[in-house]
Amino acid sequence: MPLESPLAESLYQGVNTLENFDIGIIGGGPAGYTAAFSAAKQGKKVVLFEKDFLGGVCLNRGCIPTKTILHSSELYRQSLKSADFGVNIENVSIDYNKVIERKNVVIERLRKGLELAFKNLKIQVVNSEAKILSKNEIEANGEIYNCGQIICAVGSSPRVVKGLEFDHEFLLSSDDVLELKKLPKGILIIGSGAIGIEWARIFNNFGVDTTVVELASNLLPLADIDVSKRVERIFKTEGIKFYTASTVDKIEDKKIFLSNGDVVEPEIVLVAVGRKPNETEKIEGVKYIGDAAGEIQLAHYAIKQAYEEIEKIPFRKDLTPSVVYGSPEIAWVGKREQDLAPEEYKKSSVLVSSLGKAQCDGETEGFIKLLVQKDKIVGAHIVSSEASALLEQILIAMQFGISAESLKEVCFPHPTYSEGIFESLFRMK
Ligand SMILES: Cc1cc2nc3c(=O)[nH]c(=O)nc-3n(C[C@H](O)[C@H](O)[C@H](O)COP(=O)(O)OP(=O)(O)OC[C@H]3O[C@@H](n4cnc5c(N)ncnc54)[C@H](O)[C@@H]3O)c2cc1C
Q1: Does 350 sit in the ligand 1 pocket, CB within 6 Å?
Q2: Most exposed: 90, 175, 350, 386, by fewest CB within 10 Å?
């Protein structure tokens, strides 16, 4: 048996060496389980190590729990407005325990599906923390696993900022906020990326006094400037307070002193200022994918990286879509208007309020904006109900170089939000 490193040599004392595997994967999040499923379907012998729950952050503390709670919050909000639609509902109230219970049921159901897939594909799952010893050896539970290839998909954790270290009671991370037993009276959210914006919408929907503070000069700073401005307008209309170009100077007795001189006194603070890849030694020959790779920290990016690695299906990283959930959805891909010189592009923008379907649904907030260079769509920025689904249609055109002109030949159904895409093709200037 080859000893690949001094560390491996020292760890061999008192450990058993197990059978050989084609692939060893550390981390059972979207990156890890996608890689495991793909490899197993190719007939490879796979072992996957997960120290916590299968599904990773995405299923247990990220995408799925937040969107489940968000849905409850939206249902509550819509119920309050239902009389406008001729539906009278009396005594609408929130049972937050039930909201959380349902969130747990959803996670459990999806996790069971994952577990079944692992079983059916005969993938060995080791429920333990694992350590990479060399490019072919993983140690877990005092055993060494020899693997032809190792994929490290250990994910990321909430970023800790000096002065805003989580105490898990007042200063919360995105993990802590899922553990709340009841809704607070007021919350301050630091950071207005996707996580900050989504939680602001959730708390505000539930009637919590919500304030967001953002260091950049606009909310959602990674978005196209028109999207950021529209989010700010929506926040104003919805009563979500926010401060831009501001930061936290100090915290005293649960009072938050902001750099602009204002003082906020929330019941709790959510610090949502990004995530950092989980610490792991970089070992040559090991493939790092998903959040652990420190590139784009999104579940679909993690999944595509896994397919690229195992199935050798390439993907356009510059066409990775971003979605912020809530009402209306926010979705974008490609170039932003603020990054282009005026003579470089044409653009069109259609207001969602001009669409029949939007009027039917009472979901009239937002726009569909396309940026075009040499008749090819290079950027799409959407604030609209169903924005994520709309964006996917444009993404296919962008990926395969379908020109804006030839998209005009496509028949879009009526009444839909997607008619806004069709309309925008005729308004390019
Ligand atoms: C609040 C929130 C909302 C989000 N919403 C979205 C969204 O709507 N859409 C989207 O695309 N993305 C979203 N994300 C991001 C998404 O969750 C991540 O991009 C995705 O989970 C990354 O997948 P991954 O497989 O790389 O890592 P992870 O999902 O983090 O999985 C890594 C796994 O590795 C395990 N692990 C770590 N170290 C070891 C070890 N040494 N041994 C064994 N196991 C180990 C961990 O326990 C974990 O289960 C959200 C994130 C958060 C926090």
Answers
A1: no
A2: 90
pLDDT digits (tens, 9 = 90+) for 80-115: 999 999 999 999 999 999 999 999 999 999 999 999
* Domains defined along the chain, listed by start: 6-61+96-156+276-310 (3.50.50.60), 160-273 (3.50.50.60), 328-425 (3.30.390.30)
Ligand 1 proximity of 302 Cβ (cutoff 6 Å): yes
- The CA distances from residue 193 to 12, 187, 197, 415, in Å, are 45, 16, 6, 32
Q: Is 376 left (phi over 0), alpha (psi -120 to 50) or beta?
A: beta
pLDDT at 2: 38
Any atom of ligand 1 within 6 Å of the Cβ of 172: no
- Mean of the pLDDT values across residues 111-127? 98
Locate the ligand 1 atom nearest the alpha carbon of residue 31 and give its number: 25
Q: Ligand 1 mean position to 378 CA, how many Å?
A: 29
Ligand 1 nearest-atom number relative to CA 49: 43
